[in-house]
Amino acid sequence: MHINAYLCAHSTPPDTILRELAHETAEWFPGERSLAIAPEQGTLMTILARLIGARSALEIGTFTGYSSICLARGLTDDGHLLCCDLSEEWTSVARKYWERAGLADRIELRLGPALETVRSLPPSPQFDIAFIDAEKTGYLGYWKEVVPRVRPGGAILVDNTFSHGRVIDAGNERELVQAVRDFNDHAAADDRVELIMLPVGDGLTLARKK
């Protein structure tokens, strides 16, 4: 048995809503299904949000809503999640499942370039937890805008920091892969946070704001 399969078999599995969302995403957007997070990653995000008592959350890159449901479920009862995405088509699926999950009242979606959305927010710390999972060439820009807006003791999660294992392939110089490498180096050297890169999904960087 592959170690990841063993890991999943010994973790809390996704519920009916998340399983149906994953199935519908695979049906409607087969070429984009890799944009969704892994189920075990969603479980981790929910638990982490609960552990730190998160009330305010930010998500950059929503797709069909799997990660936003996981984040929102971990927030306090009066919590609020701000989601940033470009696609009306993808997020229309998310809206449907937010309703089904009973979370629509705590999730706000803003369509448009995420960097512009975040820059329009006050520059002071206001989020307890943030999740970055959008175009990889924009990761550095997102990080620079997100870190100041997360409270001390808050968490920042960044997806796909393995780039499907390509970050350690010295012969791979694709722009996307190099962008992830550059981000990983930058984040690891950022003295505003302490962080660890976890072997969950396609690599999940977890940072704690000092």
Structure described in brief:
The protein is an alpha/beta fold.
Fold and architecture overview:
This protein is of the alpha/beta class and 210 residues long. It contains eight helices and seven strands; from the N terminus they run αααβαβαβαβαβαββ. A seven-stranded mixed sheet has the order 3-2-1-4-5-7-6, with helices on both faces.
| Low-confidence sequence ranges | none
Order of SSEs: HHHEHEHEHEHEHEE
β-strand percent reads: 15-25%
Give the distance, in angstroms, between the N- and C-terminal Cα atoms.
Answer: 39 Å
Number of strands: 7
Q: Whole-number radius of gyration?
A: 16 Å
Task: Please bin the fraction of helical residues.
Answer: 25-40%
> What is the residue-mean pLDDT, rounded to a whole number?
95
Biggest beta-sheet profile = 7 strands, mixed
Shape: globular
How does the helix and strand content classify structurally? alpha/beta
**Continuous helix count:** 8
For the biggest β-sheet, the strand order reads 3-2-1-4-5-7-6
Fold blueprint:
Layout: H1 3-9, H2 16-28, H3 39-51, E1 56-60, H4 66-74, E2 80-85, H5 88-100, E3 107-111, H6 114-119, E4 127-132, H7 139-146, E5 150-159, H8 175-188, E6 193-198, E7 204-209
Parallel strand pairs: 1-2, 1-4, 2-3, 4-5
Antiparallel strand pairs: 5-7, 6-7
